[in-house]
Write a structure and sequence with these properties.
about 90 residues; 3 helices; about 60% helix
């Protein structure tokens, strides 16, 4: 007879649901990532939005600023996606 967990979960530990705060934080991080991608694609378009992009150090600073701006936007509500995602993941069935 093979030995192993008897409760049907990997590693023998029970699955604990994530707390609403962790879900909300993950949803905000996802929204910040999405907003950062939107800002990057706007900057990298043909016309750009902050100049020509010929300066490598300026590009690095701009990318950092975009990430910080996207994170701040997501924490303040952003597009409202974090709220929708968090609500969908915490919904009781």
């Amino acid at each position: 007879m093979a030995s192993g967990p008897t409760n049907g979960t990997a590693g023998g530990t029970a699955h604990k649901p994530d707390s609403p705060a962790k879900i909300r934080d993950a949803a905000q991080q996802f929204e910040a990532l999405l907003l950062g991608q939107i800002l990057r694609s706007m900057r990298e378009s043909d016309k750009g939005w902050l100049g020509t992009g010929d300066d490598p150090s300026g590009d690095c600073a701009t990318e950092y600023a975009e990430q910080a701006f996207a994170t701040a936007m997501a924490k303040q509500g952003g597009l409202g996606l974090a709220d929708l995602i968090a609500a969908g993941l915490t919904r009781e069935d």
